[in-house]
Amino acid sequence: MVGYRERVQSVQNEVVEACHRVGRDPREVHLIGVSKTVGPEALPDLATAGIVDLGENRWQHARDMLSTLAAANFTWHFIGHLQANKVKDVIGRFSWIHSVDSVALATEMSRRCIQQDKWVQLLLQVNIAGETQKFGLSPEKLIEVAQRVHELPGVTLRGLMTIAPKSSDVNEVRPVFRELADWLRRLQQSLGDPQLTELSMGMSDDFPVAVEEGATMIRIGRRLMAGTESNESR
C-alpha cells in the first residue's frame, strides 16, 4: 500500500521536473497538503512524511485538527471561502489565509488581529476564469482592492490565489495560471512591495502546469490523502 511518504515524494518529483522544464528552482515551490478528508490521527504520519504546511477549507474540520498537540508540527493555511463571522475563529490559528475576496473581509481580519494582538498573511483570491460557482475577485477589481487591503494594519498582503477550471486540457488551464502571474506582476509594480511574491495555484490535477507558470504554493489533497476529492480548495 502506498503511504504518505511515497505520495509526497511523487508530487515533489513532478514539481522538480516542472521546474527544470522552465528553469526554476524547485525550492521556490511550497507543497501545501490539503487535509480535509483525514482526521487528527493522520497528523503524526503526515509530519513524518515531510509535510510542513497543511491547508484547511472548513473551520469545523480545522477546529478538530488544530486541537491536537501534533498540529504544532505544521504551518496552517486557510484555503476555503471564509465568512466574516468565522474570522474570529481562524485569526491566531492560521498563519496564512488564501481566500480573501473583499475589502470588508480583510478589514474584519485586520480588526481581529489588532484586537487579539495577532498577525496574519493574506492572499487575494481572484476568479480569473469568471466561473459563477466560484468565489474570488474579478480581475478588474483586483488593483483597487489590493491597494486598500495593503494599507490595513495587522495583516500582510503577500500575493494571489486562484482555482482553475477542472479540465484535463492543459491549454485550458495554463492561460488561467499565466494570467494570475501577470496580475501579480502588475500588483508588484503598483504597490512596490517586495513581499508580494506568492502565487497559490495548482491542485492535484494541474499543479505541474501551475508550477511551470510560476506557482509558489500548490494545494494538494487527493494526490496525498487517500480518498480525497479533486477540488482541494472548495
Overall description:
By secondary structure, the chain is α/β, with parallel strands linked by helices. The chain has a single domain, classed as TIM Barrel (Alpha-Beta Barrel). The protein is built from eight helices and eight strands. An eight-stranded parallel β-sheet has the order 7-6-5-4-3-2-1-8. α6 (139-150) runs parallel beside α7. Mean pLDDT is 93; it is low at 227-231.
Topology, element by element:
Elements: H1 4-22, E1 30-34, H2 43-48, E2 53-56, H3 59-66, E3 75-78, H4 87-90, E4 96-100, H5 103-116, E5 120-125, H6 139-150, E6 155-161, H7 170-191, E7 198-200, H8 207-212, E8 217-220
Parallel strand pairs: 1-2, 1-8, 2-3, 3-4, 4-5, 5-6, 6-7
Helix pairs in contact: 6-7
Observed structural traits:
234 residues; alpha/beta; TIM Barrel; eight-stranded parallel beta sheet
Helix tally equals 8
Share of residues in strands: 15-25%
Helices and strands: which structural class? Answer: alpha/beta
Biggest pleated-sheet summary: 8 strands, parallel
Pick out the low-confidence regions: 227-231
N/C terminus separation = 28 Å
Radius of gyration: 17 Å
Query: How many domains comprise the coordinates?
Result: 1
Which CATH C-level class is it? Alpha Beta
Helix content: 25-40%
Strand runs, count: 8
